[in-house]
Amino acid sequence: MESTVIGYDENLENFEVNAPYLIYQGEFILKKGEHELILVGEIFFNWLPDSHLSFRAEAQSELDPISVINITMLIGVTTLNINDQEIGTCINITQHSELNGLFEGKLNKYKILGDSSREVEKVSFYVPNLSYISGIPVVWPGKSAGLQRLIFTNQEYSIIIEQNSKFFVNKPKLEKAYGYCIQYYGEVRKNDDGLISYDESKKLLSCLSHFLSFINGRRTSALFAKGEINDNQIWSDFGRYHVDPYKYVTTWYHDRLNINLAEMWKRFFSYWYDDDQQYSLRTSIAWYLDANSNKIHVEGSIVLAQAALELLYFWLVPQSNDNGNTESKILDLLLEIKQSETIPSELQSLTDLTNSVLRNKKSNSYTIDNGPKTILEIRNAMTHGNKWRQDNLKEISTLARIDTYILALWYVELSLLFKLGHNGEYNNRSISIHKKEPAIEDVPWIL
Question: Is residue 68 a contact partner of residue 27, using CB atoms and an 8 Å limit?
Fold first, then answer.
């Protein structure tokens, strides 16, 4: 087994589910106009009830009551400053005693701590709420158990990500808490030993966050990025980035798979850095993640998935055009990825729906005979107010709507995997969800 090469972090070892993450410890100043308070304490990142920065500190000398009143008032802007650098504005400032007491508050509109104008040798980061991904075994200092490392490289950058050694200790706690836990840490360097600017790292980590989220099936982000030279911290970014609270979701990835994610990453990276293609990649994944997390109920998730499929049609199908209806577009998309439009027999409630008789606006009867038509029928009933569409929706059971939701997300996953050049196995959600076990099979375009 390999030894770890990206730095053992004892703080991460001791990280508990939903525990605040310490950003800074020491002296800082609250300022409002000519008034200021010199405090010593901690700035930390809270996950719940929503992600935000907070501070908790004490004054080290007698305080001017006028300054205390002005700084804790809601009127005006109070800033928090470290070493003459404004870090952010403060809200909800509370003093727990009249003089020399304890102060608490939240930070808003965060700024970078340190000198973000300087280029750095490496950028380190943490990744919360990322599911188990099979990688290369490694050994942590003082431990004999093999852990997992992910390596993503291209011509310009090398990224290494490793699991926290307490990943499997924290996993059941996270599942029970439905909250947040830092389960991975990583770093990025340039392959030519060149330096990385802050703006450059931010774009790269945004790309990585979307890639990991697509694997994860729900949003995660590279957080608490730090730019370093010779292991000295030059700047740190503790801004808020989107991370979904833990929730079990089905996704195309399963840890039983032997997938070369490194090759998929290269394709993903190339699209992200292509101005003509980044929008399609970013947007389709965003809609997929929102639908997969079922944030807006099944019907709303079907609408989002259908929108993603139409976007993917224009991105994937060479002869795409605006003239066809949505059903024909999805059918053409499925044809491009070699996927049958036939509804899988495992989606029993949906196959039963093919025997139902529906009506159009002229009261003519018709039936649903393929997957795209089912998606379109529910989408139209949700987005149009026609009474006959609403009557049709009443004929579609809740179970059939759930199966339609599964079907639409399955199409989205396959389309994205096709565009990302994946030519191996994946987890077929149309089979695995109802069986409650993985359904590992080859993607349809290699059969």
Answer: no
Confidence band for 411, pLDDT divided at 50, 70 and 90: very high
Query: What does the pLDDT read at residue 143?
Result: 60
Residues 6 or more apart in contact with residue 274 via CB below 8 angstroms: none
User: Which residue type does 107 have?
Assistant: L
Supply the pLDDT for residue 193: 85
- 193 φ/ψ angles, rounded to the nearest 5 degrees: 60, 20
pLDDT confidence band for 14 (50 / 70 / 90): low
Side-by-side strand order, sheet with 223-229? 2-3, 136-139, 146-153, 157-163, 182-190, 122-128, 223-229, 232-237, 113-114
Cβ atoms of 102 and 55 within 8 Å: the answer is no
Q: Are the beta carbons of 127 and 183 closer than 8 angstroms?
A: yes
| Nearest residue to 351 via CA among 436, 437, 434 | 434
pLDDT value at residue 376? 86
For the chain, the domains span 21-111, 115-248, 279-446
User: Comparing C-alpha atoms, which of 40, 52, 42, 44 is closest to residue 15?
Assistant: 44
For domain 21-111, give the CATH number: 2.40.10
Note the Cα 257 to chain centre separation in Å: 21
Bond before 318 cis per omega within 30 degrees: no
Q: What angle do CA 393, 394, 399 make, to 5 degrees?
A: 85
Across all residues in the chain, what is the average pLDDT? Answer: 88
- Predicted confidence at residue 141, as pLDDT, reads 63
Per the CB < 8 A criterion, the answer to whether 313 and 281 are in contact is no
